[in-house]
Amino acid sequence: xxxxxxxxxxxxxxxxxxxxxxxxxxxxxxxxxxxxxxxxxxxxxxxxxxxxxxxxxxxxxxxxxxxxxxxxxxxxxxxxxxxxxxxxxxxxxxxxxxxxxxxxxxxxxxxxxxxxxxxxxxxxxxxxxxxxxxxxxxxxxxxxxxxxxxxxxxxxxxxxxxxxxxxxxxxxxxxxxxxxxxxxxxxxxxxxxxxxxxxxxxxxxxxxxxxxxxxxxxxxxxxxxxxxxxxxxxxxxxxxxxxxxxxxxxxxxxxxxxxxxxxxxxxxxxxxxxxxxxxxxxxxxxxxxxxxxxxxxxxxxxxxxxxxxxxxxxxxxxxxxxxxxxxxxxxxxxxxxxxxxxxxxxxxxxxxxxxxxxxxxxxxxxxxxxxxxxxxxxxxxxxxxxxxxxxxxxxxxxxxxxxxxxxxxxxxxxxxxxxxxxxxxxxxxxxxxxxxxxxxxxxxxxxxxxxxxxxxxxxxxxxxxxxxxxxxxx
Length: 474
What we know:
The protein has 474 residues and is α+β, with helices and mostly antiparallel strands. The protein has helices at 13-60, 76-83, 158-193, 195-205, 225-272, 276-305, 320-337, 355-372, 428-438, 462-473; strands at residues 63-66, 69-72, 90-96, 101-104, 121-127, 130-139, 149-156, 316-319, 341-346, 350-353, 378-385, 391-397, 442-447, 454-459.
């Protein structure tokens, strides 16, 4: 069985939780309104029924017996007072046990409740098209009376409904305030509870793409630890895949370098024993083999130094002066062959980085400079710290340089400028860019001294290097 989660945009656990809480709260509010109105009406009925019974007693106090006939002593003023009510209309009727009307409203005489329902007894009815509350009271004050008297008093229900509505409204506002307070408390409670998750998400969001170190599960809420475990397993698989890719690239570099070097050596031996047109053709093949060897080396170097192929890079302290010394021994012969003055200006500087990658970066910078600097020119390699205390590498030449409009384009792979006559792979600066990216360094291209040539400067951030090293070690 598969679990299908909502895919709509803006899906939020906070809103879902609040929505699930709001629905039962609204249901409870509806039940509360019905219950409060019923209870309010019950309380109002009890209070006003008592007042209605008091009116019936006042009428009963006016009854007397006269010559075997029951009568009522009720003046017009007394009846007016009896019927006076600000909100409701009041009706009354007094009847004999045989149903005869002694006084009051004739239409009310038929509204008396049966004797078995109690004394007094109450019920709702309709009188003159209006809802009324009717109280029935059976009364025999003296033994000499010929028959019992039934007193029926009724009033419309405006006061009762008003009282019940007030009770309901008061309770409704209380319930609404309670619901609103509950939602606010729940909202901020959820927000507070989600702080660790938000912090974890922010930490993952700020990670560099190549940082595949495990996510710390110890401080995470228990509900998301299974998710973090799955993420860490994915990270581990990616690290293993990157390591396998690096192992393959390293093996391929070794396997390709040997036959290509052998091919170049054999071509040189063949060329020594040839002459004429055949020798010229072999020289062309030699150049092609040299270009192939250089291109293969550059492509493998680019593959090894790319961010995708290096999800985890072991960072350590690297002395830039050592890099310059190693480069001097590697490129002095090439510089002498082209009659180029290759100079080194080394000042103490250290960075956190990968030694072999930084050597590859510097080698590509010097190789590019030597390729595009004409014979008799000069190339200067520098290292040190700038005024901000940040280490840098710098290679300067007096070659043709790179126009400012094309300086962003040259970092793309296999990009060569049309005006460059020297053969190259177009990968040197791409490798430099990838290695700099892995080391959180900035690559800067600017015009050399005397408004000619090119300076390629690599500015390292010591803080970034240390932060990356701590991420990867954790």
